[in-house]
Amino acid sequence: MFSMDKNYVVQVNEKLWKNGQACGKQFTMKCAGDDPNHNCTDESVTVTVGAHYSGSHVSFILPPVAYRAIVDPTVLQCDVEYKMIKD
To answer: Which CATH number does 3-86 carry?
Structure first.
């Protein structure tokens, strides 16, 4: 994974990938945990879909630097809110 101007490239699951239709789409994303134990930050990140993976237990795989921007890195998984900003 790499970042250009804090626009992070992410992987998505097959459901979101839709046979490549998601490639290049951009989203804003932030941690959605209202539970104080989720340790969400107030930050959001912009991500661009660049690849897919065959798992389906999570929707997005973020690079570590993007993940740390939105949630405490000691939390292994969190719910996210995301909104498409570029189709």
So the answer is: 2.40.40.10
